Amino acid sequence: MAQKKKTTAEKTASKEAPKKTTPQKRVYRVDISRTYSSFVYVKAESPEAAEQLAEKSSAADLREVDDRGDWAGYIEYECFGDEYNDIEPDIGGEDEPDESAEAEKKKAPAVDPAIVEGIVASMVPIPGKNFKMGKFPVTQAQWEAVMGENPSEFKGADRPVELVSWDDCQKFLKKLNASPAAKASGLVFRLPEEDEWEFACRAGATGKYCRLADGTEITAETLGEVAWFEDNSGPETHPVGQKKPNAIGLYDMHGNVWEWTNTAFGELRVTRGGSCLGSAGYCGSSSRLRFLPSSRRDSLGFRLCASGRAASNDESAEEEKKKAPAVDPAVVEGIVASMVPIPGKDFKMCKFPVTQTQWEAVMGENPSEFKGADRPVEQVSWDDCQKFLKKLNASPAAQATGLVFRLPTASERDFAARAGAMGKYCRLANGTEITEETLGEVAWFEDNSGNETHPVGQKKPNAFGLYDMHGNVWEWTNTADAQGRITCGGCWYVSAGDCESSNRLHGYWPDDRIPFLGFRLCASVRAESNDGSASRK
């Protein structure tokens, strides 16, 4: 077929035209309910192209996070590696300067002091804690006042903002904290850690949901009093503050939108609280899902947390030192008494995992999911363990013992767990070796735990006198590899095979907090260095 000849005007226009640009890509929401979930976000050049990309997505393009119970499986979609945040048009051309950041800075509106004042006024002090939390999730009006746009699917000034990623929240926080009004407030705004979120949500409740101001606890049958969820939402979000608050005065802690936290699980970030699209079970105080930090969904929002703005590093350290409770010498004495010498080695190991009583006596709070004074502490990260050890070792009572407390290495723990066994598990004091069939004599695992931790020391000890070396909680070690910090021992929800002496779980980052991660103390003799300071022998 012959091509149409260009007119003179067309030729002139062609010569004067700028370099050809590629089509701008936008984000489209594609309904894929026929396959996995309700929808997926895809970056493409047109709605038709987006649908084709979603159709072509195979199992290899899906990222699946598989856990149990409240941490039920969740699928995160990625189409052909395209992320759907930080999307900018491909403008083509060569060696063109990147002016996007400067342009963004120029067009971003200044934060209205009145908005900051409203946020500060709605921050609720959390009893017994050193932080405040927003009475409501961040609203669309607040988001738009700070960021200059409203990405939400379900529009409404007083509805919670959604379709915001964890990364987006960091941009919001950075801009909010940089405003003169925020600086004048003396507060630093941030996302809550998930243990902070849960403590504030429960408001003293011991059941699945929150406690109200009159002392009653919410149940699945009365959840509609405090939450928008699939039974009453429509399904859509609703303006914040329309339901009853919990005993602390916080609204919408259950349902409406899942709320981002600052807690990481590998490369994922943890969300809490359930949403308007989920069932009552997903709205529990301990329920969680995990998403990539770039994920944007119409059930994902966030709530502000705030701590005091420190004047300087020296001042903040001094304040921390003043407010931190002193370590009770009786607690240290109990720990020392439970340290067992490991035959043929130059270290001792604690007879039990660190309990919730011991943790709370040293740190002043208990982050555990499965509460019980004699149960192992869990939901503590490797970093948290380092803070515990630093405070414990700095106490006069610990220094007087001549011991330096630390985490064991993975090889030290393996040796202590086996207690001379040649098989997969441990040896008992009578010389018999535990097998998969007799594992229940020494361990809490999926066959006998009832999906929870149990008080330490209820099973038989190994030949060294160590309890719970198999099961109950995975225990942090001081050993790391390229995938993160190594944990050992198995836990309450895994199979017998995962509780073997040599089994190691890789891939946890030092800041991960999960209800099956705890730790056990190891100790070496405190030696005096040349300058008189203590060091590990």
Describe the protein's architecture and organization:
- Mean pLDDT is 80; it is low at 1-22, 27-42, 57-101, 311-323 and 528-537.
- It is built from 14 helices and 21 strands.
- 24% of the residues lie in helices and 17% in strands.
- It has 537 residues and is of the alpha+beta class.
- Strands 13, 14, 15, 20 and 21 form a 5-stranded antiparallel sheet that branches.
- The N and C termini lie far apart (87 Å).
Any chance you could write out the topology, listing elements then pairs?
Layout: H1 8-16, E1 26-31, E2 39-44, H2 47-56, E3 62-65, E4 74-77, H3 100-107, H4 113-121, E5 123-125, E6 132-134, H5 140-147, H6 166-178, H7 180-185, E7 187-190, H8 194-202, E8 258-265, E9 268-272, E10 288-291, E11 300-301, E12 305-308, H9 313-323, H10 329-337, E13 339-341, E14 348-350, H11 356-363, H12 382-394, H13 396-401, E15 403-406, H14 410-418, E16 474-481, E17 484-488, E18 504-508, E19 517-518, E20 522-528, E21 534-536
Parallel strand pairs: 8-11, 16-19
Antiparallel strand pairs: 1-2, 3-4, 5-6, 6-12, 7-12, 8-9, 9-10, 13-14, 14-20, 15-20, 16-17, 17-18, 20-21
Residue share in β-strands: 15-25%
**How much helix, percentage-wise, in residues?**
10-25%
Shape: elongated
What is the average per-residue confidence, as pLDDT, rounded to a whole number? 80
Cα gyration radius (Å): 27 Å
Q: Class by helix and strand content?
A: alpha+beta
Number of helices: 14
Tell me about the biggest sheet?
Answer: 5 strands, antiparallel
What low-confidence regions span 5 or more consecutive residues with pLDDT below 50?
1-22, 27-42, 57-101, 311-323, 528-537
